[in-house]
Amino acid sequence: MQISAQEFFSNENVISFCTEENDLGIRFPAGTSDEEAFDFISGCLESSSSPQWFIMQIDEPGLLGITIEHSEGYDVDFACYGPFKGKNKQEVIKSINKDITIYAVEDEYLYDEDAYVVSDTCYSQSYLDEFDRVTALSDSIYVDCYKHFFQLDPSDFDNISEYFDYCDAEEEKLYSCIDETEQKEHVIFPPDPVQFDMTNPCFRGYNDNYPLESMVDCSYSTSSKEFCYIPEAKNGEWYLFLVTNYSQKPGTISFNKTAGTATTNCKIIVDAMTVGPVCEGESFELDVNNAPDEATFLWTGPKGFVSTEKNPTISNATQENSGIYTVVMVSNGVSSDEVEVPVVVNKRHVVDIKKEIKEGESYIFGDEALTISGEYQKTFTSETTGCDSVVNLSLTVLDKDSFTISSDSPVCEGNAISFKVFNSPKNATFSWTGPNGFSSKEESPTLDNVSDANSGRYSLSVTVNGIVLPTAETDVVVNKIQHTEIADSILQGETILFNGQRLSVSGTYHDTLVSAKTGCDSIVTLILTVEELKDAMISNNSPLCEGERLYLYIDDAPEGVSYEWSGPDKFKSTEQNPTIDEVTKSNSGIYSVKYEYKGKSFTLTTPVVINSVKKQFVKAVIKGDEPYKIGDAEYSEAGEYTVTLVSESDCDSIVYLNLTRAYEANDLIPEMMFSPNSDGENDRWIIKNVELYSDITVRIYDRMGKLVREFDAYDNLENSWDGKDYAGRTLPSTDYWYVIDVDESDRQYVGHVTLLH
Questions:
Q1: How buried is 399 (Cβ within 10 angstroms: 0-12 exposed, 13-18 middle, 19+ buried)?
Q2: What are the pLDDT digits (tens) for 175-223?
Q3: Do residues 460 and 471 make contact, with C-beta atoms less than 8 angstroms apart?
Q4: Domain 2-110+200-269, CATH class in plain words
Q5: Architecture in CATH of 669-755
Q6: Looking at the domain covering 537-611, what would its CATH class be?
Q7: Residues 6+ away with beta carbon under 8 Å from 608
Q8: What angle is formed at CA 10 by the lines to CA 218 and CA 262, rounded to 5 degrees?
Q9: Which residue has the higher pLDDT, 621 or 642?
Q10: Spatial contact of 431 and 460, defined as CB atoms under 8 Å apart
């Protein structure tokens, strides 16, 4: 019994899935029909009720373990087939349907190799292998081997390592138990292949060649959670899953990765497709399979096609409707990636033929032998495209005694055209004339490499025994070959669709199209330039210190583009190379610039580091005449100073220096401030120990260096500074500089004093 592949696989009844979480709200429904996928045992599946087909694609390679589970906790079973190859789901399904041949006949069936039956259960030797134990970890492993029984359940272990440790410890017991079982002859080995025994537990089902021969894993248990194991998944491979729902209860199927390093491609779950290719004049529908009810869609495509329908239809298609259609699905507020759907619209050809035959002859047209003049039409279907070609025949049956002429017209430029004489008289001479100075004495001349100048009416004059017969005429049409040249450019990394191929390399490409009207070629030449886009470079002048200026640069970007800079502290700029003055620590972080060029968006980032300026507060004491040194500066007088220490490798340090003097017993000690406001306290500037000297001169200067007061024999009493100038005017509150000369000790004191009102 042969079963058509179309009953199994189509773009609609095979749902795309992935094992990662998706934000689009796409769910994978369980099958609920009364049907069975197979009407015979297939692999481990003794039955295949309420089937649902799924398909996935591998992204990152490696080992992959998948848990398959019913959302309501009902029993599910599965079979996994693969790997298959193809650019997309449609191509994979088409390939499977092309190759599949499923047979169910009693003389073709399979048994597990190296298998044995224990307590009415079939076990293979590979069952004890490490990976097969992982495979069976999906629900529970029940091993009933003579008197020994133990159960392994994933929930009993924190991780796979603990599971393997347990298995290693039990392995010796298990092998011992198997040996005992074999000795007691409780093991039934598979029957001879020529036998047929569906009751044998090791019977795998009929040898249905495909896809059973591609079965990777299979489970038929009572659990609501199954585990599929794919040991060496490779990038780009496709795997087909049959998930059966024994209870027929509605719900969703979840596919979760629970082991391995491999990942699956989640871009395919927006399951966009079409049925094709189609022929000119037919309609085609674009469809998104298994989409959430609340989802919205945006389709775009050739000829400015735009639609927001889920399944838009294009009627009366032409070749201009061929190309790549894209759809973006929005669900749960999340937009999917663009999904491409290639559409091919094949031509329908209409050909007009004129033929002449002599009376008594026949012309074979399709499956008919025509002998009567008339207009005939036949439709032929292309084995390659499946599209019809319509041929219109105008047939003329000539009398035996008359002669006529014909040609290969119409022909295309560059081809040859041959002339023929039908019912040609014997002992005749011929004289042909025609356009562009054509003449010939041959009976059936040929013109090579014809052009448009050879189009027109040709005449033949026939002479027999000196008698000139009536002239015969025929019209010739030479159709032009159209040459079209297109120049286009793309960015490096992009592609352009031409002649059914995606091009990505600079060069000259040709596509030859056959005109449905004339049958002549139209040659389209594409001169493609792939613009090598230099990698733009983004940089800055950091690390910087607080207070310095930050420069942001972008080099080698295309000319004429606009920029969008963004960064820390709400930084925004549209300049190509923006700056930030007097930066602070808040300007540290990642800066990015975005620009668009020829419809493609580019984003670059650069880190900026702003270091803090170090601040220190220092108190120090100077003694005698030796100055206090800090950095390159020296200070001999008490006071408060601000010193900047320059660093070659880091930010400068600012030192706030409070300098006091340690005086000797007879040193003059000027007060640092006084407040002459007539309150009886600090009304005069006091210089301690001034009474020890009789010959001192005190000069007071303002901040501009102007002498405002001078004293001889300063005494802290009436002959001392009261905050006024020579004219008795009260001076403003500020710092003043003093110079004290002591003639007796030949010393000079210099410093500043603060006047406060």
A1: exposed
A2: 555 455 444 433 344 444 434 444 454 444 443 334 556 788 888 888 8
A3: yes
A4: mainly beta
A5: Sandwich (2.60)
A6: mainly beta
A7: 540, 542, 544, 550, 552, 567, 568, 587, 588, 589, 590, 591
A8: 45
A9: 642
A10: yes
What pLDDT, on the 0 to 100 scale, is given for residue 539? 92
Residue 232 DSSP one-character state: E
Tokens representing 280 are 């000119």
**Reduced to 3 states, what is the DSSP secondary structure of residue 728?**
coil
The amino acid at 145: C
Spatial separation of the C-alpha atoms in residues 183 and 175, rounded to whole Å: 12
Residues 394-412 have pLDDT tens digits of 988 766 556 788 898 889 8
Structure tokens at 457: 């009416």
- The residue type at 162: E
Q: How far is CA 104 from CA 2, 38, 142, 190, 311, in A?
A: 7, 10, 32, 20, 38
- pLDDT at residue 151 greater than cutoff 60: no
CA distance 492 to 558: 13
**What does the pLDDT look like over 514-559, one tens digit per residue?**
766 677 877 888 888 887 777 788 999 988 888 889 999 998 888 8
Cis peptide before 211 (omega within 30 of 0): yes
Domain ranges of the chain: 2-110+200-269, 113-183, 271-346, 482-531, 537-611, 614-662, 669-755
Closest CA relative to residue 116, chosen from 215, 168, 183, 166: 183
When pLDDT is cut at 50, 70 and 90, the band that residue 701 belongs to is very high
Query: What is the DSSP annotation of 5-26?
Result: GGGT--TTTEEE--SS--TT--
Tokens at 179, concatenated? 């040996």
